[in-house]
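One-letter codes give the sequence; the fold follows as tokens. Both lines appear below.
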Amino acid sequence: MKTYPQLISEMSKSELRELESRLGVIVEHLLKIRYVKGQSGRPGS
């Protein structure tokens, strides 16, 4: 079974760009969720 670094090193450039894009979307969504949760406890919301 290959490790993540091994799998990534074998990916083509287009596959790496796709992976970076998808990871970026995941991080963006997690940050939005964290922000919204932080806003729910504030006065006036």
Notes: Helices lie at 4-9, 13-40.
